[in-house]
Amino acid sequence: MLEIIKILEIVVWILLILVILIQPKKSSLNLTTFWNEGVWKFERRGPEKTLHRLTIGLWTLYIALSLAYFFMA
């Protein structure tokens, strides 16, 4: 069982790296562009939103697998 968890952990780790690498890079942060009446306007749309959610999901799965491995060892 521990071997399966370790293999799944490695697969999730590789997928997490790939998802992070294909995310679009923010070129620069121009505060005057995003500032409007005291409200920040950062909104992910389309594929960027999907990649963001996938990153969070994979990270959560990786943490869960790591904790499972820790408590089962």
UniProtKB/TrEMBL annotation:
Localization, UniProt: Cell membrane; Membrane
Keyword Iron-sulfur: no
Protein name stated in the entry: Protein-export membrane protein SecG
Protein purpose: Involved in protein export. Participates in an early event of protein translocation.
Gene Ontology CC, one term: plasma membrane
Superkingdom of origin: Bacteria
Similarity section: Belongs to the SecG family.
TM helices/strands, residue ranges: 7-24, 51-72
Membrane topology: Multi-pass membrane protein
Keywords: Cell membrane, Membrane, Protein transport, Translocation, Transmembrane, Transmembrane helix, Transport
Biological process, per Gene Ontology: protein secretion
Predominant localisation class: membrane
